[in-house]
Amino acid sequence: MALPALATDADEVGSNATTSALPASIMESLAPLFGGQFSHLLKVFMVAGKMIGDRLNLDPTYILTSFGIIWAVHRGGRQLSRTASGLVDQYLRSYVSISSHDELYLHMIRFLGAQPKLAGSLSLTAETISKTAWEEQDDYGLAPTMMPVDGYGDYLNFSNQKAKAPPRFVPAPSLHDFQYCGKNFRLQRSKESNSNALIIPHFKDRETLVISCFGRSPEPIKSLLRHVKEQFYLDHHAKTVVKRPTSHGGGHMHESFSARHSWMLVANRPVRPMKTVVLDDDRKKQLLDDINECLHPDTPRWYASRGIPLRRGYLFYGPPGTGKTSLSFALAGVFGLDIYVISLLEPSLTEDNLATLFNSLPRRCVVLLEDIDTAGLSRPPDAITPKCRTTRSVNEGQGSSGENKGGSSKNNESTEESNGDSAREVRSVPKSQGANGTVKQGISLSGLLNAIDGVASQEGRVLIMTTNKPETLDEALIRPGRVDMQIAFTNASQKQAEELFKRMYEADGTEEQKQLAAQCLKADGATTKTQPSGHHLQKQSPDIDGKSTKLKENGKEVASSSEAAVVKDEKQGITPAELSTIAKEFADKIPSSMIISPAEIQGFLLKRKRSPRRALAEVGDWVADIIIQKKNRTKISQVQ
Ligand SMILES: Nc1ncnc2c1ncn2[C@@H]1O[C@H](COP(=O)(O)OP(=O)(O)OP(=O)(O)O)[C@@H](O)[C@H]1O
């Protein structure tokens, strides 16, 4: 409200003053140029200039002109410095950019989050730290609390950890400066928004990190990135990196947009030691030697000189829970390779995606294609036309060389497709109607073969396919060149059961366990006298109070035998010699007809993981129950 009055005054002042005719005219001529707000400001400025001028006896024009010069110098200086820094940036700085689609991005963000200079930055992004089950060692220095539960006892409660877990702060999208090894670096974090966010909700924004440093060599940035990567993998030497496909965009709701797939790190698990997978030693050795040969640095030359693509395929087959997946992970651990796990049942996975995924595999890795029988990749018998058979046998004729397999598979497909309806059936098995009426893409047999054989498919990759029903697989899938070795997995033999038992209870070499074993040895002579198989519990065993409990194998007191076994286990531990004996007795109670899987035995033992004697005492009832279950084909167990 005050401005119009002032403006009026200014008009008057301007018109009365002899020396201020110029300012008034300047103002009048400038006002329309800058619009209402600015002309008001100019008028205020004029009045102020006039008053100061009157006071200091100075021409207001000089004051205005001085202000104008200062402003112009300031603007010019800024422009000059921008141009100069632009030229420096262009010609005297080196840059390396990292896309958020690359795993180096994750390494860099972790590194930046730990930089003290950046932690104090005024522009940060806060992230909730989500740790995987294998990263929980450092629980922010907080022990979980024990909470009483309705008179049942005290139980662990982790809510305080969740509440107190601090967020991670990383540099926000903008410009940041930081130092590494005494050198200054600049980080520009920028986000590329997904313009289709409303249509494709799963499609994440893409981010870019641009690291720059002064100088015409990117070497300092390269060495920084080497350091960042090394830091990330510092504790990874005993870990196996597990990756699975992740989709960007698409999905069931928007069939018009095909989801793009890439590999995403899903877990970083401790390496599974080979010895923990109970399998015939000769088979294990044969497999290890074969993979070692395939991965040996000299092997590619040997294969190349003979025109044979270097890749190995293995088929692990056998009943569920017999160790197929476990062995695959153990192998990845032995060779220090990342493992890439694909399920062909993933509904948004198309054949193109599968081919892209295979083509983007690193040079050396393990690819695990799980449960291939469930993906419905078999070729319907009536779909195998004479033409198909001929084409396939040509492929087989190429033996394991697999040369031109990608091409020949494609040729197969086109030949089959041109062959009419029956041939086209080869493709269609996995295509199915989704619940909402959408058609799931599915992977056809030829699509899978193309991906496996693809020309760009990485050499040196180890492909492992697992199945419970090898007899349902199409022979094209498992012919030599695609599957070079088949490994059978079976339910547990008595020998395997014995090994599983020992693995479950053997000391892992910690000091505590060594001491326990030493104590056991001392106590052993007085207390342990294991009877021959079948009569092992017929003995005097001291209970907690030092009184003795008479144990019988049959009748009422059998129930108390496992309780007494627990007491003995907890009190005395177990010596290696005793463990061997108990393991043997345990194995004797497992049916030699191999009807129980290692997974089932492991499940039974896990419920008694601190008490081998209790496991031995209870295994008879458990086996009897399993036999009834399998006979009656019921899934409900009476003995857990
Ligand atoms: N041969 C074995 N040696 C050691 N552990 C085993 C063995 N077989 C199964 N297990 C245990 O049983 C569990 C399931 O095993 P795994 O997933 O490897 O079986 P699988 O054969 O891949 O089963 P599926 O066919 O259902 O995928 C794992 O925890 C594993 O430790």
**End-to-end CA span:** 85 Å
CATH class category label of the largest domain: Alpha Beta
Tell the overall outline: elongated
Percent range for helical residues? 40-55%
Strand order, largest beta sheet = 10-9-12-13-16-11-17
Ligands: adenosine-5'-triphosphate
In CATH terms, what is the fold-level topology of the largest domain? Rossmann fold
Largest beta-sheet characterization: 7 strands, mixed
**Unreliable residue runs:** 1-22, 199-203, 250-257, 382-439, 509-513, 519-559
Q: Which value, in Å, is the CA radius of gyration?
A: 37 Å
What's the domain count?
A: 4
Judging by the overall fold, what is the CATH architecture of the largest domain?
A: 3-Layer(aba) Sandwich
Main location: mitochondrion
Domain BCS1 N-terminal: 65-277
Protein name: P-loop containing nucleoside triphosphate hydrolase protein
Domain AAA+ ATPase: 310-493
